[in-house]
Amino acid sequence: MTDRTTRERILDAALDLFGVRGVVAVSLDEIARDVGVRKQTVLYWFDSKEALVDGVLDKVAAELVIVIDAAVRSAPDDPLDRIDAVVRAVFRPAVRRPGLLGLVREVSRLSQGQADRLAERIAPLIDRAVAYLGDEMAAGRLRSGDPRLIAALGYATITGIATEPEVLRAVGWTADAAGLRSLRDELRAFLRAALQA
Amino acid sequence: MTDRTTRERILDAALDLFGVRGVVAVSLDEIARDVGVRKQTVLYWFDSKEALVDGVLDKVAAELVIVIDAAVRSAPDDPLDRIDAVVRAVFRPAVRRPGLLGLVREVSRLSQGQADRLAERIAPLIDRAVAYLGDEMAAGRLRSGDPRLIAALGYATITGIATEPEVLRAVGWTADAAGLRSLRDELRAFLRAALQA
DNA sequence: ACGATTGTCTACCAATTGGTAGAGAGAGAT
DNA sequence: ATCTCTCTCTACCAATTGGTAGACAATCGT
Question: Which of A98, A183, B120, B162 could form a disulfide with B94 if both were Cys (CB 3.0 to 4.6 A apart)?
């Protein structure tokens, strides 16, 4: 039975550091120090830095899927409420872990391979949203429009908010969880206003 | 008379490279190579990499101020039209230069000093937007709400869209100028729907 | 004509990066 | 008891990073 804790702890530390300061800016040494282990131990668990990033992406994607599924299942049938629940659900881990979604953005700038692997994990989520929006529009329960555009805009806005707290705080905005939540609520209001049938 | 062209060319190259691949990921050597000069020449014009980043920020902020001012001045008096014009104006340079706004985001993750210097440049722009929204709401020409929240949301969304093309393309979205424009137009529609008095 | 200034260069440097090679500790199974 | 496998370690390495020191040419005002 492979000892899981070290690997898990490396993933946790890497996720936090990558998310806050960026993948390129964080060295394996720093991650190792954070975990209380040598850099070579990190390279034992992950063949390369790229493999580590990949592992972190797996973790993030898996978390997102679980969180979204749970939100969809427990939300009422009304599409606006359901969208609302998903937005709130996606924000919850993002607030708890600053930069979780910021990582998603940065990875696409690394290598083509990593951008592709990222797409494999994000695409299904967006596709689900597109299909859902399309269905509800066809049923007349949402104001009709281009579901792809709306999904893409929502995706961009959510990652925008989630990765922006540094800037917002610098501008005089509070970047704590409360500030992020009010911003999230404003987004929810926008979505309601724009999508209401 | 200081020869301006080399310095300007360095700034241009740095802006493009920083914006697309990130500040930490781009070395002075690479920028120098791009300009056709040695790295030490870059360090002659800018005392350090941080100073170069600072110079690039100055350039970006100055461009943004000019562009926004022009848009405000030439837009009709109606607040929705005016907001519309500003959104379009801000996107224009962002589309021409991929990652111009992405740079703004990343810089805040570097050092505290650079985050602060960034704030000095961005804050006035957001403050102007907040003041304007507040005035128009008070005059009953926009649906009332919290202007700070709306301005922050708009800022986050715009930088989100502008820095997301890589991800969106990876997901099957076209990241060319046309794709960015449809996304921008969707944002404009959202703003209209949410702000209309 | 000439000294000073401006701009670019060659030649280094210490520090850090991601990564390799291989030793050794610890536990389980036989 | 020892063999094996899992895990973490020490000891390196080549390459690259941002940055320094100083030579050399061109251009300038005088």
Answer: B162
